[in-house]
Write a structure and sequence with these properties.
Elements lengths: L5 E2 L18 E4 L5 E6 L4 E4 L4 E4 L8 E6 L2 E6 L6 E7 L5 E9 L7 E5 L7 H11 L2 H14 L11 E4 L15 E11 L7 E9 L5 E4 L8 E3 H4 L6 E4 L3 E2 L8 E8 L3 H5 L5 H7 L3 H4 L3
Parallel strand pairs: 1-16, 2-10, 3-9, 4-10, 14-15
Antiparallel strand pairs: 4-7, 5-8, 6-7, 8-9, 11-12, 12-13, 13-18, 14-17, 16-18
Length: 293
């Protein structure tokens, strides 16, 4: 079947806005010069960017820093002091590269929250929030919500009255990705509870079954370890979004990630594979009890 979907692929998926910190946030203007960032050992710092971002940590500090990028926010924490180190952050949409000079010590930072601004992206936040509610793309909103529920820190998980949890139609492995190298299992689904009614996002667990690491992407590559999902994913989807683009070899702690599929029909209908109706009915037995909103 012809696959018809638009994809939003990135190293890290945008998921949830940060909660407000009690201290006034520090603001800096990006003027092409590296931004000095101070971290207190053991304390998380929240850094806002004008765009959704991904980041790169130098190998020498990967075991001393934990970081998560979500919804244009970088959550970063250091476990021990280390010399000033430069980290590269890139906007996923505008491709803007930001350079951060990270310094770590036992001294507290000026503020837990830092906002990186550009001349082009300085906006009235209250107006932006109102506009977001009226013009946002439901496909993105659903995907962000699903990723938030699965990956965001508990303090950032918020409900959305316009989105409801629905039972997963199949909780067993399904042949979603051709080739036999990847196992896919639907793990959760959410649906719009407002116009447009029936738009659904399904989170699918993606696990590497091969003994070599794989890179997942949505364009052509001649490299054997790179899988072009635009050709391999079965079904009819509006969007497909990866939580991570690299999978470690089977058995490695990084051998699994999540694929978010948005459709205007149920997951099974969009997958368009023959599924025994009695087996499906059995899998859905007690679905109301399993539904957790």
């Amino acid at each position: 079947m012809k696959i018809c979907f638009k994809w939003f692929c990135g190293v890290l998926l945008t998921v949830a806005a940060a909660t407000v910190i009690a201290d006034a946030p520090q603001r800096v203007l990006w003027d092409k010069r590296p931004i000095s960032i101070h971290l207190q050992v053991g304390h998380e710092r929240i850094i806002h960017f004008p765009d959704d971002v991904r980041y790169w940590l130098p190998d020498r500090v990967k075991h001393q820093v934990s970081a998560l990028a979500a919804n244009g926010v970088l959550y970063i924490r250091a476990t021990e002091p280390f010399p000033t180190t430069r980290i590269r952050v890139q906007g996923l949409n505008d491709q803007q590269v930001y350079l951060l000079d990270i310094t770590v010590s036992e001294t507290a930072a000026v503020s837990d929250e830092l906002i990186v601004m550009t001349k082009e992206n300085t906006r009235n936040r209250s107006k932006e929030t109102t506009a977001y509610k009226t013009i946002e793309d439901w496909r993105i909103r659903l995907t962000r919500y699903a990723a938030q529920q699965l990956y965001a820190p508990e303090r950032l998980v918020d409900g959305d009255s316009a989105i409801k949890r629905i039972p997963v139609e199949s909780k067993t492995s399904v042949p979603l990705i051709r080739g036999g190298l990847i196992e896919t299992v639907p793990i959760a689904s959410w649906q719009t509870n407002a116009e447009p009614m029936g738009l659904t996002v399904t989170a699918v667990r993606v696990r590497n079954l091969s003994r070599q690491s794989l890179q997942l992407q949505f364009d052509q590559s001649d490299t054997p370890q790179v899988l072009n999902l635009s050709r391999l994913v079965r079904g009819d989807w509006l969007t497909a979004t990866l939580q991570h683009v690299r999978l470690g070899a089977m058995g490695d702690e990084t051998d699994t990630t999540t694929l978010y599929l948005v459709s205007n029909r149920s997951f099974v209908e969009s997958l368009s594979l023959p599924i025994d109706s009695r087996a499906l009915q059995n899998r859905q037995t007690g679905k109301e009890e399993n539904q957790d909103g």
